[in-house]
Amino acid sequence: MSIAIVGIGFGAMLLLMFLSIPIAVTIIAVGGFGGWLMYGMPLVDMMGGVIWSSLNSNTMLAIPLFMLLGELLLRGGIADRMYDAMAVWLGRLPGGLLHSNIATCTLFSATSGSSVATAATVGTMALPALQQYKYPMAPSLGSLAAGGTLGILIPPSVNLLVFGSISNTSVGQLFAAGVVPGLLLALSFSVYIFLFHGKAGANEVRDIPLSDKLRMARHLIPPLVIFGVVMGSIYGGLATPTESAALGVMLAFGFVAGAGRLNRELMIQCSIQAARTSGMVMIVLVVSLLLNVTISMTGAAQAMTTWIAGFELGRLELLFVLLLFYVVLGTFMDAMSMLVLTVPIMLPVVIHAGIDPIWFGIFVVIMCEIALITPPVGMNLFVVHGVRTDGGNYSDVIRGSWPYVVVMVLFTISLMIWPGLVMWLPDMLAGRG
Amino acid sequence: MQRFTHLLGIIFGASMLTLSIAITVETLLRKLLSISLGGIDELGGYAIAIAAPLAFTVALFDRAHIRINQLTNLFPRKLQAVLDVASIVSLAALSLFFLHFAIQTVLDTWSYKSIAQTPWATPLIWPQGLWLLAMATFPLVAVALSFRAMRLLMRRDWREIHKNFGTPSPKDELEAELEDLKRRETEVHLQEART
User: Residues A331, A377: contact at Cβ < 8 Å?
Assistant: First the structure.
C-alpha cells in the first residue's frame, strides 16, 4: 500500500469528522470500506469475530467498572467536600487557593473520570472563595481548567485503558507509568503558580486551628482509600486492573452507603450515566480495533513506517514532530477521537524508532490533556467558563490556561529527554529496574 | 423510547454492580483463602459483551456518541439539520452493520457447535445468543430515531431536528452537572438538618 492511499484514508476520515458525522461511523466507514476495496469481502467477513472478541474482553470490562466507580463517588456526593479540605491545608502556600484548585482537581478527576464533572464541581466550590479573597480571575480559571486535565493521566484512567486495548500493551504497566508523570505535572503546575502567582490571595487572613484542619481532612479519606486500594492491588500483584476496578466499585458503594446517601434514584442515575459514558467510549474502541484489522492487513502501518523512516529522523526529532502534530490536532479534535484515530497508525512508527509503547502511551495521553485546554475545542475551557457567575469574557479562561499549555509542552520535552521519568516505576515493578 | 433506553441503562448498571460483587468476592477468596470460584473471568467477558450494546443504545438516545461540530456550527441552520439527520442515519447503518456481523457470528457458532476453550467449556451459543439479543436493541432504537429524524426533515422542522438530533452543547452538559450538584448540596443540608 502506498503512503498516498494512507493519506487519502486519513483525509477522508477527517473530512467526515468535520462534517460532524459520529467518530465511530467515520472510522468504520473508512476502515471497512478501505478493507473491502483492498481485499474484498473476506476481510469484511472477519469483522464479526473481531467485534465479539473485542467486546468479550476483560480490558473492555474495566471501562464501565471505572465509569461506575466514578459515578458513585460523584453522584453520591463523596467528593464534593474535597475542595474545602484541600483549601484549609494548602491555602497558606504562596499562591494560596490556586494550589487547592490543582490538588482538588487532581484527586477529583483521578476518581471521577469526567473532566466536565470535575471542572463543574470543583469550579462551583472554588470560585466563590476565590472571588471572596480577590484572586485574579484569569489565573484562577486557568488553574481549574488545567487541573481538570490531570485525571486522564493519573490512574485509573480510561484513556490509558483505551490506549492499552488499541496498542495491546499492559494496562497495569501503563497505570504504573502514569503515576510519576501525573504527580510531577501537578507539581509543575504548582511551581508555576508559586513563581508567577505567588502573591495571589495574600489578603487572605485565615488562621484555622489544627483540630479543624484534621476534621476537614476526613473528606479526603474516601478518594485516597479508593485510589490506594485500586492502585495498591494492581501494583501489589493482588489484582488485575479489572479486578481492582471491581474492588473500587465496592468500596465506593460502601462509602456512599456509609454516608447515608444510598437510594434507588441514585443507583438508577449512576447506572444510566455509566451506560452513557461507557457506550460512548466502548463503541469508538470497538471500531478502532476493527480499523486495526484493516491497517495490519493492508500494510498501512508498514507504509507509514517506511515513509517516516525515509526522513531519517532521530528519536528526538521524530518526537518533536509528533509533539507539534498532536498539539495542532488537539486544537480542533477532542481527546478520545485523537487517541483512537492516531494510535493504530503511529504506534508502529514509534516502535520502529526504538520508543517504548508504554512511554508513548503516556506521551499521547499528555497530548490529550493539552487538547482539553487548547482553543477553539477545549472542553475544559468551555466548562470552567460556564461555571463563572460574574459574566466575564471567555478570553479570561484562555488567558489563564495558555501558561499551563506551555508548562505541559515543556514537561513533555523533559520526558522526551529523560524517558526514565515515565519508565522508572513500570520497569521497577516488572523487575527490570 | 426514553423509558426503554433508561431500562437498558439500569440493566447495564445492575449487571456491572453484580459483576463487581462477584469479582470482589472471587479476588478476596483467591488471595486471602487461596480458594478460586473459577470462571468469573469468563463470565465477566460474556457479561460485558452482552451489556456493551445496551450502553451503545443508551449513548445513542442521549446523543452522547462523539461528534465534532466546530466547523458545522458555522454552517447555515438548514445544512446543520441535514447533517444531524445524516448522523443519526449513519449510526443506524453502523448498528445494522454490527447486527449483521452478530447474526453471522451466531450462525457460525450454531453450525460448528462451538465451545469456549475454558474449564467451563461453555457452549458459545448461550452467551452469543444473548449478545445477539442485546445487539438488536441498538438498531431497534437507531432505526426508529432515523425515521423520526427523516420525518422531521421532510416537514423541514429545523428547530426540532436540532433539539433532538443536534450535538448537545457544552452548556447543556454543564447545566445538567450543575443541577446535579445542587441536588447533592440540598441532600447534604437535609441530612445535616436531620442530625
Answer: yes
Q: Tens digits of per-residue pLDDT, A63-112?
A: 999 989 988 988 888 877 788 888 888 777 777 888 888 988 888 777 76
Nearest by CB to A58, from B8, B45, B72: name it: B45
CA proximity to B87, closest of B168, B177, B185, B171: B168
Q: Which residue of chain B is at minimal alpha-carbon distance from A116?
A: B174
B95: left (phi over 0), alpha (psi -120 to 50) or beta: alpha
**CA-CA distance, B187 to B195, in Å (whole number)?**
12
Residues of A in contact with B45 (CB under 8 A): 56-58, 61
Instruction: Please name the residue that has the C-alpha cell 490529550.
Output: A368
pTM of the model: 0.90
| A362 in Cβ contact with A177 (< 8 Å) | yes
Q: Which helix (H) or strand (E) holds B82?
A: helix B77-112
pLDDT band with cut points at 50, 70 and 90 for residue B10? very high
Least CA distance to B58: which residue of chain A? A276
Contact of A164 with A171, CB cutoff 8 Å: yes
Chain centre distance of CA A365: 6
* A-chain residue closest to B131, CA distance: A52
Q: How far is the C-alpha of B98 from the C-alpha of B87, rounded, in Å?
A: 16
- Residues A331-364: tens digit of each pLDDT: 888 888 889 888 988 999 999 999 999 999 999 9
Q: Are A187 and A102 in contact (CB under 8 A)?
A: no
From residue B120, alpha-carbon distances to A22, A200, B34, B39 in Å are 39, 63, 20, 7
The sign of the dihedral angle between the CA atoms of A367, A373, A374, A377 is: positive
Q: pLDDT at position A202, please?
A: 66
On whether the CB atoms of residues B1 and B143 are closer than 8 A, the answer is no
Residues of B in contact with A17 (CB under 8 A): 68
User: Using the 8-state DSSP alphabet, how is residue A353 labeled?
Assistant: T
The x, y and z cell numbers of residue A193, run together, are 503558580
